[in-house]
Design goal:
Blueprint: H1 8-11, E1 17-21, E2 24-30, E3 33-38, E4 43-46, H2 48-51, E5 66-79, E6 82-96, E7 104-107, E8 125-128, E9 132-137, H3 141-148, H4 153-160, E10 171-174, E11 181-186, E12 192-200, E13 206-212
Antiparallel strand pairs: 1-2, 2-5, 3-5, 4-9, 5-6, 6-13, 7-12, 8-12, 9-11, 10-11, 12-13
Length: 226
């Protein structure tokens, strides 16, 4: 079986604190949100700089078309031996589909992937080469890529603005003609490969998707391999 899912409730509860080792502590300080349009209900997660403009494989778990909130778990990292040290990171991104209680989180799979092919340190995830992830409807990734243009300046400006550091709030870019959009966010410590988990209610309905960026430790895990 694959890498165990994180404790999503803890990740998205303000004030949750994590011992990260080496004298570092991470505390959830903010849960900013933005709205994502899913015109087809085919949920995908990817690095927008790399994948938008291409066909992106959606997760096999689909949802009803609609508009749903995306929340970020922002943590502040401190060091006991360096009181002036402060670093903020996005630990996870949560596409919330339903208010029903989630009873199970499992690895979100795309076509041809099988959880039984993985051991307990492995996962399927998406690669990040530009320090950014996103949630998007797979049916609109090509036209949204056209919106970004060839160099992605529009997204860079939205992520950084006039600041010298990347924003820690969700960034929404939309096609003005169709209102199709995507929600982008910094990917934890930066580049890597990151898993997405799908939540289900007691009745089996999809309640949401969470992409985890391995910023804070989770119990019962070894070293994760993609």
């Amino acid at each position: 079986m694959p890498l165990p899912a994180p404790d999503v409730t803890c990740l998205f509860t303000a004030g949750s604190s994590y011992d990260c080792g080496r004298g570092m502590t991470a505390t959830v300080t903010a849960l900013p949100e933005a709205a994502l349009s899913l015109p087809s209900g085919q949920v995908a997660a990817c690095d927008p700089f790399i994948e938008l403009g291409r066909d992106v494989e959606p997760f096999t778990a689909e949802v009803d078309p609609g508009t749903y909130p995306v929340a970020l778990a922002v943590v502040e990292v401190t060091r006991a031996d360096t009181p002036e040290f402060r670093d903020e990171r996005v630990a996870a991104a949560w596409l919330r589909v339903s208010d029903q209680p989630t009873v199970e989180w499992t690895l979100a799979l795309s076509g041809g992937q099988a959880a039984e092919d993985l051991d307990d340190t492995e996962f399927f995830g998406y690669g990040v080469d530009a320090g950014t992830g996103c949630f998007v409807d797979a049916a609109v990734t090509i036209p949204l890529g056209d919106l970004l243009g060839e160099d992605g300046d529009l997204l860079v400006e939205a992520l950084f603005g006039d600041a010298n550091s990347m924003t820690l709030t969700p960034v929404v870019l939309a096609d003005p003609e169709t209102s199709h959009n995507f929600v982008a966010f910094p990917s934890g410590w930066g580049d890597g490969c990151y898993p997405t988990w799908v939540g289900r209610s007691a009745g089996g309905e999809v309640t949401g998707f969470v992409t985890e960026f391995f910023v804070v430790p989770q119990p019962g895990r070894g070293a994760a391999d993609s």
